[in-house]
Amino acid sequence: MNPNDENYIINLKLMKITGFYQLINPHTSKYLGFNVYKVGAGLEVMFGIISMLLLFLSSYYYLDNTNELMSHFMLIVAIFFSTFKISWVSKKSEMIWNNLDMTSINFLSYTGHKQEILQTARAKSISTTIIFVILWSSVTVAWSISPFFIKDVYLNVKFNDEIRRFRYNSLNYVYPITEESYNENFLYFYVVEMLQVIFWGHGTVAYDTFVISICISIAFQLKTIAVSYTSLNDIKGDIKNLKHNDLEAILNLKLVIQDQQKMFKKIKEIYKIFQPVTFVQLAAQSMLIILQAYMIFINHYNGFSLLSVPIIKLIVTVAPNIIHLFITCYLYSNINDQKDSMNFALYSGDWTAMSIKYKNMLLFAMRMNDAEKLKLKISLRKIVNLEMFASVMHLTYSIISVLSKSYGNTKSK
After folding, report:
1. Strands 30-31, 154-159: parallel, antiparallel or unpaired by DSSP?
2. pLDDT tens digits, 366-411
3. Which of 58, 213, 285, 319 is most exposed by smallest CB count within 10 Å?
4. Could you write out the DSSP letters of every residue in 201-265?
5. What is the pLDDT of residues 222-271, one digit of tens each?
């Protein structure tokens, strides 16, 4: 790949800004034999593991504080997912790089493909990834600056028989020090926790923008092939040109079938990379949406205004999670739809006037499409699609409804 070439559907410029491109690029400059970006990714992973341990140990001191305990559990899940994504990308960097060529506008061999479809894909890829940068950046900023908007809030932490009051921080680790030492040196502790929030934001933005771009690339490459299937065998001219047109159509059909086979091979490789991360993502994100919705409800029930900083912080967090889960499920559904549309595209062309050889090739292409079961699954039966998103949202709504009725009955008594 030429790093200066803009003929790619993926948002290469954004990938370079986040360092994702340099992380997977085997030609990135090395210092003392090490890729600096891989070293940075390793430090991010190490920092994430330390953060999860601190949150887990801190949870012990919040056993009497349900709200903070749930917040710690939510943070452990979120940081684990971000850390896992960065470590997985670093491990699979060579495999990712080898499959990045399929995002090129010039990846397909047949010259009759409609390039404007892929140009549309590039524009959509850039705009969608920028939207997610804004969404995840807003979450990062909200969690980073929240301590300065609630200066007078202190958390009561029980050490043996002593209660210590620590000032509210971004992640609210519990440190084995006196409250005087913590509150007087609050800024130092704030920087430590803010850095972890920034690392989380960076890992989330870097990976998610890449996945979104790849999914858009796959869907539009398949769409381009389907459109070519529909139009390549249109008969033009009088009956005298029929034989020539048939021969040309056969050659074109071979090229398009080869393009489709190339894409199917690339999709299989990409799905091998995405499947473990997608499985963890759907589990983690579903859990986060439910937890965050639960915490918004509990905080509001306990007297917090919907405009209070803790609830705004949760709303700013749950909204991107819901949007991201929807977009993920939608993109994979779109890929499934584009793949399933191949046979319809083949059948829709003007094939009836073609030769037996052409019709046999057409039948071969249809059988090939039916044989390929290219759908991302997280289990033997569960396919990643919009139905999965609907089931998560239905479960969240059911839990909140049950809680609402339960708390309503308690309040009435």
Report:
1. unpaired
2. 887 777 777 787 766 778 888 888 888 888 778 777 766 665 555 5
3. 319
4. HHHHHHHHHHHHHHHHHHHHHHHHHHHHHHHTT---S-GGGHHHHHHHHHHHHHHHHHHHHHHHH
5. 999 988 888 775 544 443 444 556 677 778 888 888 898 899 899 989 98
CB within 8 Å of 86: residues ≥ 6 apart: 41, 44, 45, 48, 203, 206, 207
How is residue 23 written in tokens? 């992380």
Specify the pairing of strand 162-167 against strand 34-35: unpaired
Give Cα 58 distance to the centre of its chain.
29
- Comparing CA positions, the residue from 264, 230, 254 lying closest to residue 341 is 230
202-219 tens-digit pLDDT:
999 999 889 999 999 999
What crossing angle do the helices spanning 186-231 and 309-340 adopt, rounded to 10°? Answer: 20
Residues forming a β-bridge with 132: none
Three-state DSSP at 158 gives strand
SS3 172: coil
Q: Collect the ranges in the chain with pLDDT lower than 50.
A: 235-242
